[in-house]
Predict the 3D structure of the following.
Amino acid sequence: MEKTLKIGNDDGLHARPAAAFVKEANNFKSEINIIYGDKTVNAKSIMGLMTLGLTKDAEFKVVAVGEDESEAIKKLSSLVDEKFNLH
């Protein structure tokens, strides 16, 4: 299952939102990856996520495969839509 998301917070995906995203992703058993441009990284790795350099308005795909994939996509989409609960 996959979904395209868009970074809405002004500072992009810096350390705090990346940590929140990774923490949420690690709550799921599914394999979860982020695809941005020609890069694919493990959504459960903060270092991987930080290497993407996602800025405000960047669009990326979240791809989840596994028993709880739909719940993972739903929760991670909500986190991004709510600007990582940092506002």
Notes: The mean pLDDT is 95. The radius of gyration is 11 Å. Residues 36 and 60 are 5 Å apart (CA to CA). The first strand starts at residue 2 and ends at 6.
